[in-house]
Design brief:
The protein is an alpha/beta fold and 296 residues long. The chain has one domain: TIM Barrel (Alpha-Beta Barrel). Helix content is 48%, strand content 12%. The protein is built from 13 helices and eight strands. It has an eight-stranded parallel sheet with strand order 7-6-5-4-3-2-1-8. Helix 4 links the parallel strand 2 and strand 3. It is globular, with a radius of gyration of 20 Å. The termini are far apart.
């Protein structure tokens, strides 16, 4: 059986087993969970085509999968295939783009992305631009500048007009901003005043570079300068009801211990784990258990 037939057969099996809509997976439900500050789980995917991590994420109860175009070597064609598989598995797909590039944003949205994360947002104008690139121009979003091609993007329902379609897609397509520079921290109040921002990610490593201070990914305690910056962002997001997340560790016991300190300060219950990290953790547990149990 050829690759295309295998892929199609797998889609049919997944759709049948999971009893989910292939066509109309929406980011709106995930956003509502974020805003209620419920537990939202994301898996960042690094494994390639025919990705088993998507099926694993679905079976474990993850809410969405996350793809990265700012770093790594992911191609648009591969991304489009993986987005379709994610939708078949009942997951929405978000991706980080390299920047405020209209052509690139159009391509990931044409591929079916349910939301876009923009890195290194430093000013209010950056935030405005991010929203403009992600939204169609409608009576509700008059500043939208997203281009339209009917052959691509999220599908139109038979019972809705084109105007209803554009407004629905705008509501269901999420906009995330990354604050990871000193300038972004300084301008956080202006940035968050922009209408249409759905959530904030904080990039603590690049932020440490920006401030010229050391960063230790798994320490659980950041340099006081970064601690202060992150606290400021969390407080401003909390005032406006905007969900916010940042790394608090990799091992689950570290994550639980560290996040408890940040939840009262405004960090949301948003968590992301890399599929490779999960594979390493599970593999390490398996190997160590065998070695311990069979030790002579």
């Amino acid at each position: 059986m050829g690759f295309e037939k295998k892929t199609e057969a797998k889609r049919e099996i997944l759709a049948h087993e999971m009893n989910v809509s292939v066509m109309f997976v929406s980011g709106k439900e995930v956003l509502e969970k974020m805003k209620r500050d419920e537990l939202v789980l994301s898996m960042s995917l690094r494994v390639g085509m025919e990705n088993p991590s998507i099926e694993v994420a679905s079976k474990l109860g993850f809410d969405y999968v996350y793809f990265d175009f700012e770093h790594g070597v992911l191609e648009i064609e591969t991304f489009a295939q993986l987005v379709r598989e994610a939708h078949l598995a009942g997951l929405i797909a978000l991706c980080r783009v390299p920047g405020l590039d209209v052509a690139f944003v159009n391509r990931v949205l044409d591929a079916g992305a349910n939301g876009v994360v923009f890195p290194h947002v430093k000013t209010k104008q950056d935030a405005i631009r991010a929203v403009e690139l992600t939204k169609y121009c409608t009576s509700e979003t008059i500043t939208g500048k997203r281009g339209f091609e009917p052959a691509y993007g999220l599908p139109k329902r038979d019972d809705e007009s084109w105007d209803e379609y554009f407004r629905r897609v705008n509501r269901e397509t999420l906009v995330g901003l990354m604050i990871e520079d000193r300038e972004g921290v300084d301008n956080i109040e202006e940035i968050l005043s922009v209408k249409g921002i759905d959530f904030i990610y904080i990039g603590k490593m690049d932020m440490a570079f920006s401030y010229g201070v050391p960063f230790t990914p798994r320490a659980g305690r950041d340099d006081p300068v970064i601690e202060k910056a992150v606290t400021k962002i969390c407080a401003e997001c909390k005032k406006r009801g905007i969900p916010v997340r940042f790394s608090v560790g990799v091992a689950p016991e570290d994550v639980v211990e560290n996040v408890k300190r940040w939840l009262p300060k405004g960090r949301s219950h948003l968590f992301m784990v890399d599929d490779v990290d999960l594979l390493i953790q599970g593999g390490r547990h398996y190997v160590n258990t065998l070695k311990k149990g069979l030790k002579k």
